[in-house]
Amino acid sequence: MGVxxxxxxxSVVVALGFFAAFIGAVRQGQFDDPYTPGVRMLFEDxxxxxxxxxxxxxxxxxxxxxxHS
Amino acid sequence: MLLDFVNKSRKTKLIIVIxxxxxxxFLCDMQKxxxxxxPTKTNTCFxxxxxxxxxxxxxxxxxxxxQGCKTVYQLFVQNEMETFYELQSNPGHTPxxxxxxxxYLRTESIAQKLLSFSSDTHAIVxxxxxxxxxxxxxxxxxxxxxxQKGVLQSEVNFPKKTVxxxxxxxxxxxYELVMLLSHxxxxxxxxxxxxxxxxxxxxxxxxxKLGLAGFAFGNIMFLSFPEYFETSxxxxxxxxxxxxxxxxxxxxPVVGYAxxxxxxxxxxxxxxxxxxxxxxxxxxIIALFTRSVTDILMGWGPGFLDSLSGxxxxxxxxxxxxxxxxxxxxxxxxxxAYFPMAATQIDSNGKEQHKPIHxxxxxxxxxxxxxxxxxxxxxxxxxxxAIDYSYVSGESTPYSKEVGDAVxxxxxxxxxxxxxxxxxxxxxxxxxQLWSHAAxxxxxxxxxxxxxxxxxxxxxxxxxxxAVAAGxxxxxxxxxxxxxxxxxxLIVACPCALALAAPFTLGNMLRIYGRQGLYLKDxxxxxxxxxxxSFVFDKTGTLSSTQKSHIEYHGAPLHGxxxxxxxNSFRNANHPLSRTLYDYLxxxxxxxxxxxxxxxxxxxxxxxxxxxxxxxxxxxxxxxxVRLKTATRVHIAINNKYKGFYEFKTPYRxxxxxxxxxxxxxxxxxxxxxxxxxxxxLIAMGFQADHLFFNQKPEDKLRQIEHxxxxxxxxxxxxxxxxxxxxxxxxxVGLALSEDIAxxxxxxxxxxxxxxxxxxxxxxxSAQRAMKIIQYSLIGSLCYNLIGIGFAVSGHLEPVVAAxxxxxxxxxxxGYTTLATHRIGxxxxxxKSQSPLQN
Lengths: 69, 839
What we know:
heterodimer; A: mainly alpha; B: alpha+beta; seven-stranded mixed β-sheet; disordered N terminus
């Protein structure tokens, strides 16, 4: 019955994985605004996407600034 | 251009003429909002759905109500943004004239204050836009980059009605963005209290805790499952230690993190010698945890960790549920929310500069443009002022002020630009002084003991004595069991259901009220509403409606030709009353007058080819036998012959009379800042003469409320203006009445839609019913406790019994409160659909 160790480990790891995903989602602010993303999703085709490089650049800038302050 | 104009006029000492175009836009808005209902499809604006009226504009086979709407449409079409109209029909807003209102944003140091992030290459600003209302708004605002070069990205938060814009400061600036938004009908609200750097970071700890408790609850239940069946299979017995050890691991963060709020609150309560509901809960948690840990470590049993994590999960769920917040409403506003960030100061050299309003000193000359709010008390030094004090008193008919007249902070200039000389600083001004009173620091509020706290005191004492007594008895019967029984009582008596009854009932009520147009700050207000026995109303803007003023004509009848003459005379006039009358009079063919004079504080004189018209004050038109002015009147004389007058009446809201009669067994007061001209009308509506107070200054209202409270009255104040702010803060429940909840209300406990005022008694009745529901749930939860204690004192509390009993009691109580509050909601809903025509 040693397999029970393996099974329990898997079950706990999977559970922890989902829990970590939840924490990540809260951190990103997904629970701050439960309405707008649902609407925005439907616009995707019409939306003008910012240049990917620029966006990354900006994101980096922001995180840097946050770390400093 | 406007600036040049003002400069010129200052030099020549001319009296500035009202910027009639913007005033007309304003009046047209007022009229539109009054008649927003029942538009016909063919005659509504393609952009904003308002009725087009007679001056509709046909463009591109579509109708528009005004040039503003058409311009916005053109702009969108040019930028290939017609999708805006496809997502939702008529989604737009009529753009309002903003003039130079935001000029101060050109001053870099002031604009910088609004940014939440800025560097040389990027800047981020978050703006509050009350007009956001549908998916088209989201789409449009998130595509701002198409309309404005330099915008990198914009993101809308719909519940908060904010848009966060990232832009390149080299290509655009905040001023341009704000102007663009205003031009397309999404004017942001920028005020003094918006300081993004000061805002505390968003608190998400409750979500973390809830998630953690739920996660642990599920997993512990899962791992405890084999134990529930008491099978003595060999392999299960062999791995018992492993399963139990794992559940213990899962429970550690639950007790160490998720449950900390309860433990802390109980500790604080104890230190303040106050037995709150968190105390028996904490006792339960501690008993559950220590008992489980010893059971598991000593190998005596599986412990109660499943019940423990379930308990905490349910409790947090209740807490989460009661936290319904109206993110786009603010219940904490003070005067700073009404005032702009900066004012335009004119220095001794005649140069304009923008000055943050807290730096304004006595003697400074300030330029107040059309639609700007006067930030400090002062004296008009240049120009013709028409001040709308609706922020302050609820009265929206503008007051005319001339050079030398005093104006007060909080008034909004409705005519063209004026100059004022500040006589006080912001914090010393008549209105803002009010905020130095203790009522605003929150320390002055009367202590209020919540229902559950009152119960929990007796409850705690009762379970502690039962636990001790049972422990003592078992000490004689079977000493080894004594401690077990003692902890078992504390475990099952943990008032989980009791602690859930209030959050779920009141949380539900909060949502029900929200659907009916009453937005409360938090659930505690409901409990206070239930206990109110005195109601205090403000008059102007609360009992009377601000929007539609009733116009009545008295005197010799006017014929069609004469009406046409009048209409044509008022066409050129700038005085607010003239504009209102112009809109009120029937359409007529345009006749241009030969001569036209507008005489300040007197009226207008207008000469046509064969006729002449005079309109204005009684003496000016030659009226005789007219007694002292009791109401706003415009007298009319045609061809120098006095005809009669138009009277502007304050219409009372529909249903006030029946509301008063239904509140008969309560004390009802009216505190009004006005003269007592309306006294008889109020008495006729059912108010008692000695409960009517007039000429009440803001501080007087506050003191009157205090006086009532000293007589052990529980007072609800219903008001709308900043002059009620003191009374709203001081009263047990302060409700701010609002025609449009997107518009600003002073700090209060709740915001009530103006149309729902007549249901006030029903709102209170449902609050009382909700409190009844909590009492019944309390009886139910006590029954569960009794059953549990039965198991506990007889020494039979198996973990599986606790694991069933606790969720069962919690779920059944929550189920009961949900159904019962749903019935209250139905009743309120039925009220709303009833016709409110009875006066």
